[in-house]
């Protein structure tokens, strides 16, 4: 059995930062990078399945990015992944979540796993679309926001639970291969030991090009994306006013503010 786990190295803002000269992103020198929190739970779930299995299970992590992603991939190797794959080509720069999903789907077709796990979303973009879009490109059954999973090696289906609105739980059986996006709290991700970190540093990371996964420049980047960043900027500071007095006085003042605002807008 093979489980492919899609992971992302996310970026968080430092206390001080500046926008790039083109106005479409933050200067990378001001970004702090780490493994996406949701993906840590996805990896742990795959490793738990491997450890509980009575037959061989291979856990493979895959990420789309430049060589700076290797640090996060080695963290995954230290936590129990068997192999790591990084897909990169300069043409991938500027890809949105849909173009990245196209790359992941092509990598899945090359690897032919039994399951694909992905985090529900990334902490930097929060689109929550990459995993489900990958399933769409593959034509695989899929489910999002999985909070409990029962999957045994060698079986052709998995049973999972999803949290719905109003405190309801949704229990479903899904046929494999399938794509599942994993929610926070499904497990407790492990810490990597010093020994496993040292071992991971010596493991190879397989790097694939677009040609290796049978894609071209038109499939990725802005050409292969359905959205693009037009501008990124720091919003103007808003104004706040505390309205005091009785309920009637507060309502009267609020109505006055609305009239003033409508007059200014006109």
Brief digest:
The chain is 29% helix and 24% strand. With 266 residues, it is α/β, with parallel strands linked by helices. The protein has one domain (2-219): Rossmann fold (3-Layer(aba) Sandwich), CATH 3.40.50.
Describe the structure.
This protein is of the alpha/beta class. It has one domain: Rossmann fold (3-Layer(aba) Sandwich). The chain is built from six helices and eleven strands. It has helices spanning 37-52, 70-78, 97-111, 130-138, 194-201, 247-265; strands at residues 2-6, 9-13, 31-35, 58-64, 83-87, 115-119, 142-150, 157-163, 169-175, 178-182, 206-208. The strands form two sheets. Strands 9-8-7-10-6-1-4-5-11 form a nine-stranded mixed sheet, sandwiched between helices. It has a two-stranded antiparallel sheet with strand order 2-3. Strand 4 (58-64), helix 2 and strand 5 (83-87) form a beta-alpha-beta unit. Helix 2 (70-78) crosses helix 5 (194-201). The longest helix has 19 residues, at 247-265. The chain is globular, with a radius of gyration of 23 Å. The mean pLDDT is 94.
The number of helices is 6
Would you list the SSEs in sequence order as H and E? EEEHEHEHEHEEEEHEH
Helix proportion: 25-40%
With strands numbered from the N-terminus, the spatial order across the biggest sheet is 9-8-7-10-6-1-4-5-11
Task: Characterize the largest beta sheet: strand count, sense, and whether it forms a barrel.
Answer: 9 strands, mixed
Strand content: 15-25%
**What is the terminal-to-terminal distance?**
65 Å
Query: Low-confidence spans: pLDDT under 50, at least 5 residues?
Result: none
Return the CATH topology: Rossmann fold
Please identify, by name, the CATH architecture: 3-Layer(aba) Sandwich
Shape field:
globular
Mean pLDDT metric: 94
Coarse structural class: alpha/beta
